[in-house]
Structures
1.
Amino acid sequence: MGMAVVLYSSVAFAAALIIVGLAQHKRRTSMLPPGPPGDPLIGNLLRMPSKDSALVFHEWSKTYGPVMLLKVLGRPMIILDSYQAAVDLLDKKGLIYSDRPKFTLYELLGWDPTLTFLQYGEKFNKHRQMHQSYLSRSRLEDFKSIQTQEARTLLRHLIQCPPDKYETFVSRFATGIITQIVAGHRITSEDDPYLRMSDIVSKAMSNTGPPGGSPIDFFPLLQHFPAWFPGASHIGVVKAYRTTVRELHEHPVRVVKTQQEHGEALPSFVLDRLEQMEDGEDVEDLKGSAATMFAAGETTTWSTLTVFIIAMVLHPEIQAKAQKEIDFIVGDLRLPEFGDRGDLPFVEAILQETLRSNPVLPLGVPHRATENDVYNGMLIPKGALIFANIKGMALDESVYSNPLSFQPERFLAKPGGAGEPHFNQAFGFGRRICTGQYVADNSLWIAIASILATCKITNAVDESGEIIVPDNTLTDGLVSHPNDMRCTIVPRSRGAKALILEAAV
Ligand code: HEM
């Protein structure tokens, strides 16, 4: 065989490879989910919303469908805008949809090891098991007395504090429950170290943009640049908050260990784990788990309760209807108890509508596909970030009528109500579903029922006597928080005030 034949054959073979490659690429590209057109190389970067991402994605989904592809700097992002698509992928195919992307910004902030951000694998299983075993349904009874006690303390704070402190005390309610569950510590003073840490950590979590979406997450090299460098501004957030985040890892375990040595530790997650710890076991896992529970459970509960309070300011008629229901079932001689829950369907509906109307994790926490997958003829590429658009699902008109209005009746059984499904999606999906959902649900219920039973929430009034209508918007962060909670909270009656003061411990 002559040299020329070898050369021609090689060129022909290479050409064939390129043609097959191009054909495969074309086929692959044509199978990708639809999405807004992007620019060469940078994809949709320039069109990515700077705020209200979940709402903007929901609008785009009306054009591109419930499974939508966005590309940012070559990184595929799939937005799931329908409950069905999220269940089909994240729940039913959990084996390949339960990973997380790398959250460089959160790692730099000191969140490590943190269940929320752990990649799917052995460490994830260990942390998930630690959380689930302590926060399981069967344990819920143990927490109810803590939750009831903190709800009563909250009532006293709300009627005694000036309006600009409402936020502080609602946050303290959430913190008070978590510190007791995690570290057996009851907050009794405003100087409590957990309150300081909680305040700083909440700020850190609501100022980081959508999870996994900061420029540092896309270009980890930016972490080595000064904060003034374009795209590196989050370095300032890291510097401001890292020490407190690390302190939150050290403090609970250090304190409970000392209490344990002195035989003074109260039951808690940390004590439970310390007692089970085997020789040589890494205490860093426990530190990470405790800090995660604290961070994941505090801001979410606080923000959701704030959403409820604003909804009551904006809808006095709904507040009055719930109070009528409570007066009928509970009366005015005692405060609501967990045992009343099944008899208060309208209060239940308000809780559900609070979770639906303004979900505090509007885009959840992104999952990551670990394999190529085909869904309804569309290719979900390996490595894609998968966002469940929880806010988008809340606005799905085929499930929720008048989705923009706050209408608890939608959840009441037919014919009195619309029989629409509860909004469990607020807690996420599949193998990454929120481990604290049952605790959160009970904390929210007892706080909502107790506030409605005893307090009247109305608009605040400014210096010139004008009624203030709170702006019903949320910040953009890992956890979103209402921007404006201006209102007035007073006891419903003298009897209600007496009940609050008697019950508070
Ligand atoms: C209103 C309150 C809460 C809401 C709305 C909420 C919502 C969520 C959501 C949407 C996720 C992401 C799920 C996913 O990736 O699909 C999540 C994860 C998580 N939540 Fe919650 N949560 C709340 C309260 C709590 C509480 C009280 C705790 C703990 C005491 C907690 C612990 C966690 C943890 C550890 C994760 C990460 C799970 C994992 O990655 O495997 N959450 N939560």
2.
Amino acid sequence: MNVQQVPITKPPSRSPMQTYNIAKIIKTEPSQSDRQFSAGHRIERSMLSPSFLDEGSVLVQKLPPNKLVKASGKYPEFCIRDQDTGKVIDIRYQDWRNNWNTKSPNNAKLIKAVKNNCYNEVREILLKDKPDINARDVEGNTVLHLSVMSGSSKLVGLLLYHEAQIDSLNSKLQTPLMIACSLGAEDITQQLITAGADINSQDINKNTCLHLATMNERQKIIDLLLNKQSLNLNLKNKENKIAMDYSSNQQIFLQAMQKQNNNSIKIYDARTDFGSENSNSFNEDKVGPHHFKVHALIGRGSFGEVYLVEKLDTNQLLAMKVLHKSKIQKQNLTRYALTERNVLSLTKHPFIVRLRYAFQTSDKLCLIMDYCPGGDLSSHLRREQRFPEERVKLYLTQMILALEDLHKRDIIFRDLKPDNIVLDADGFAMLTDFGLSKEGVQEHYSGARSFCGSVAYLAPEMLKRCGHGKAVDWYLLGVVMYELLVGQPPYYANDREELFNNIQKADLKLPSYISNDGINLLKALLQRNPAKRLGSGKGDAEEIKAHPYFNDIDWNQVKDKQIKMPILSRKTRFIKVEHNVFEIGSFLEQSHLAGWSFAEHKIQQ
Ligand SMILES: Nc1ncnc2c1ncn2[C@@H]1O[C@H](COP(=O)(O)OP(=O)(O)OP(=O)(O)O)[C@@H](O)[C@H]1O
């Protein structure tokens, strides 16, 4: 390989490889003691501590309409603020109930429009009049119940989008899902289950959804429910009967019971563990959008967005990656999404982001991961232009350990780049974005054939399309090392053809400020022939760990996170989320992706 050593004193300015929408700032100051007053005097507290946000961060606090929140003032304990109008009322002098009552006509208007199945009118009322989204008619049906009765999945979707309570109860203690099951509304049943409705709830007669579907001979609904692993087939109603007792085809119930028995062996422990985490016992079918509050957009990738979310029962902050089913299916990328979910669900490593849950809505696939508040290396690099060598070395050690772990399990990452390295709260580097990873690759320099990766981060063997293996990750480690030290990837060119040409043929330009060991390591990693590349031998990561560049590294200390990492101040703005992330883009159900749901606790032991 031709290597040119050139003196570079100032790094070239780094051109952004990825553009970001940087939103401007609205700083709010949530207080732990914030309370919300609503009809029925329900008191909740705002759960987000502001300490994790940087100066100028945007904190999204989109509260449901009609909430009157405690506001600060001279006597804060007597002041409430109408979230809709912003008006602050001192309840010692003004009757806040009157204020609330002015909203009732709007509720009546909403109920009427829903009963008449007038979608546009409902939408307008929700936007303009701000009625109670859980308004009830005289029989105690909420507007969501009424929309199910009207048979309009579009209306149901709209109300869910406006945060209608999915498991609200009417006077017979029936949920909207029970009504859909009784009526045989297949699409709405599916829609509500996907959105997280409870399928085991019991009404005033202790009938479940399955009882009601069976009594009303709704065969398609029965089939749909029997496919749900979380369905409890043994619940008895007031007549002491299980749903099967009302069926003329008991065989399918018995088969479902058999299937559940087989599966329960696999997931029993996990479920117990999962449930013990909090009082709301979650299960695979139930973890869904309603368990999380979306606070801000923190990153954007090619296939979706990453949001900062808060798990409502524990107040834990997590990162949620949202993939759009329509985009993925259109571009035939379903297998990449599934790979990401599979690899992440199998991985538990100090330097790989942990997947906590995976769920899907009708049009989105969601991965809930640990939140890394330090931002990604790409945005830090853009600000700092290049990093000091000692810091680069620390990040490399963590990436080597992460890749070593993946390789031991015959997984190649294939997408190593600064954008996919995020920093945790202690400054440690964590790998994220497993969409391009490949399972089942044993070879070091062949085994996978797809042409993938970000253009500036393609290994020469990928461009040649002659097959690539684990060694591709070591080449990309060299690319990352180079970029962190120099400010841009090796061979970088704006023109795609030129870039590809450079990757295959151009001389490697190495600035003189890099240490000799650093230069040797870069040359060994950026070796074009994968068979000759450092790390391509049987030893894999061991070959790299043994390089003199890492002589001063105690690998056990790194693995145990016993080293001190620099904490970089994060200047990236959080981007305010104006829309409901779970807005149902298309009211037509996209196909359900089997095997997507995941809850970490199920496999922990
Ligand atoms: N766990 C996390 N914690 C904090 N930020 C994260 C996390 N995961 C991802 N991000 C941020 O979101 C950005 C995009 O995430 P990710 O790379 O997974 O999306 P993608 O759509 O797969 O992107 P790509 O176009 O690279 O394939 C990252 O660059 C990072 O800034």
